[in-house]
Each structure stands twice: as C-alpha cells, then as structure tokens.
Amino acid sequence: MPEAAFNPIKHDRAFEAIVRQIESAILDGTYKVGDYLPSERALVEQFQVGRSSVREALRILESLGMVRTSPGNRKGVEVTDSMASSMSRLLNGALRLHSVPLVDLVEYRMMIGSTGNFLAAHSRQDEHLEAMRDAIQDMEKYRDVPERFALADVAFHSAIQEASGNSLMRMINSVIETAVIDLLHETVSDDEAEGPAMRDLFIEKHLALYSAISAGRGHDAAAIARESLLDAYGPRLTPLERRRLELLAGTQLEDFGGITQN
C-alpha cells in the first residue's frame, strides 16, 4: 500500500488543510485509483487532529469524487477517478456564471434521484440502511450548523446511490455533487427565519424516504425525491420554471396568473 508523508495540521479549520494534503497526494500519483487511504486512526495520528476533522475532510473528498467510502468495506476509503473531481469543478464554475440554470440542476436531480431511490428500495442491504440512519442522525445533530447539515445530506444520498447498485449512476452523480453541496448550503442557510424551517423540512422528508426504502416501497421512494426537491427549490424559481418541475413531479399545477398547461 502506498504511504504519503502527511504533515501535522495547525489550523482552526483543520479539515480544509487535510483535504488539500490528501488531494495533492492523489493528484501527484502517490495514491492511484483503486488504492486505499490509511485508516482513520492513522490519519488522526499523522495530521495530529481530532477524529471529527478527519471524517469531515473525507466526506468533502468523497463529495468531490476523489474517494469513495462503502458501508461494510473493511479496507477503508478508496481512491476513485479524479476526472470526476475535475468535471465537478467545471460544473460548479458554470453554475456560478449562470451558464447552467438552477432549474436544470434540480430537474436533473429529480430524474436521477427518483430512479436511484426506486432501485435502492429493491436492492438495499442492512449496511446501506445503517449509513442512511447515521446520516439522518447527523442532520438532526447539526440542524443549526448549515455546513455540517449539508454534508450529512450528501452522505445520506451517497448511501442511497450505493444501495442502488448502479455504478454508472454513482459515477455521474459524483460529478454534480459539489454543485449540489453549494446549492444546498445556500438554501438551508438563507436566514434565521427560513433556514431552520427548511432544515426541519429536509429532515422530515429524509425520514419518510428512509421509511419507504427500508420497507421496499420503490414507487413511494421515487415520488418523495421529486416532491422534496419541488418543495425545497420551487420557491426560488420563476413561475415557468416551477411549472416544469411540477410537470415532472406529477403534481397539480398552481394558478400562476394565466399560465396554462399545453
């Protein structure tokens, strides 16, 4: 197994420095696709930080598509194709420049999310359900910490992707994950009035989704994905954009002052 010489971290936001060092070790070839990073305990000792900082750094690296954690895999954290990370950055930049409208990203998530949920409901294993439960517990624990809340949400959906059993779906979704994190963070931390209410809604929807997947109710799980995204992002869209999502979600159209269905 390859071994990188990581340096101790002396920084308030230690997880960011950990991300940079591990990312560099992957990009310079010290760790190649298919290799496994040192154990969590070894990383804690090398970086001389707390376990929570290492875990948060690994979650971020996973959201970037550079590593993958698989429930039940005793080998640990696997290095994945860094091309996904590069594509994620390109997509994130395009979103910031408004080249990719928010409605397109949400619409895509509706399509891929509902399919993934359906598959997960029929192929999930106990370790996948455990990972989903852990993520929901983190969402409840970090309800008032938007950044950590967003990471827990990503962990929840990563567990669903693993449960779906579709490797292509996992690979494609890893490309858009950083954009999703930024979008979710922006949504759940808007202001003191809306932020907590939105986070409570997310927790409620995730609990319902977990219940549907654990019970094998694929169609219900798929519907929850579409409805949750419509509830979360619909208010941020124009009437015409919201109409697109309502058509995809299969919900009844509201009266938008003269907008009619074709």
UniProtKB/TrEMBL annotation:
The keyword Transcription regulation applies. Residues 12-82 form the HTH gntR-type domain. The keyword Ubl conjugation does not apply. Keywords: DNA-binding, Transcription, Transcription regulation. InterPro entries: GntR_C, TF_FadR/GntR_C, Tscrpt_reg_HTH_GntR, WH-like_DNA-bd_sf, WH_DNA-bd_sf. This is HTH gntR-type domain-containing protein. GO terms for molecular function: DNA binding; DNA-binding transcription factor activity. It comes from the Bacteria. Gene3D superfamilies: GntR ligand-binding domain-like (1.20.120.530), Winged helix-like DNA-binding domain superfamily/Winged helix DNA-binding domain (1.10.10.10). It comes from Leucobacter komagatae.
